[in-house]
Inverse folding.
């Protein structure tokens, strides 16, 4: 069952019972994941846990790690933290690459429009050499 909450500005949230049924879990398991910090569902005005699509994606990762790979909760916490750090580093690298690209294109544009007398090393104009046959 999905309900709307004004806290999330119209985003649907799934109640704990619906999530537990969907993923074949006991609601206590979801509460445990929340207690140890693996999941952080939002709350309705009535304090009901509401799981967003992002929460469900994270839960699927948790379940894959536990069910298919046998990872314990401490290992899952480390893996999830590392995934978040890697994601943040990727965002930073993308922003840096975009900055460098912008700066390079700006510099190339300015080089085309500036006389060479502003260069660090002056290059004399090319001389034409005649070759007699």
């Amino acid at each position: 069952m999905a309900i709307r909450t004004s806290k999330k500005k119209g985003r649907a949230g799934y109640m704990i019972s619906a999530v537990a049924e969907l993923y074949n879990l006991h609601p206590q398991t979801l509460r445990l994941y929340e207690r140890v910090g693996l999941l952080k569902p939002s709350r309705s005005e009535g304090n009901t846990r509401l799981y967003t699509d992002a929460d469900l994606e994270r839960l699927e990762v948790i379940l894959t790690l536990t069910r298919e790979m046998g990872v314990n909760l401490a290992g899952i916490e480390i893996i999830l933290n590392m995934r978040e750090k890697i994601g943040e580093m990727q965002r930073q690298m993308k922003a840096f690459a975009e900055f460098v690209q912008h700066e390079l294109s700006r510099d190339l544009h300015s080089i085309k429009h500036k006389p060479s007398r502003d260069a660090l090393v002056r290059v004399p104009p090319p001389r034409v050499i005649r070759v007699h046959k």
User: Anything to note?
Assistant: Confidence is low (pLDDT under 50) at residues 1-10. The longest strand covers residues 12-15.
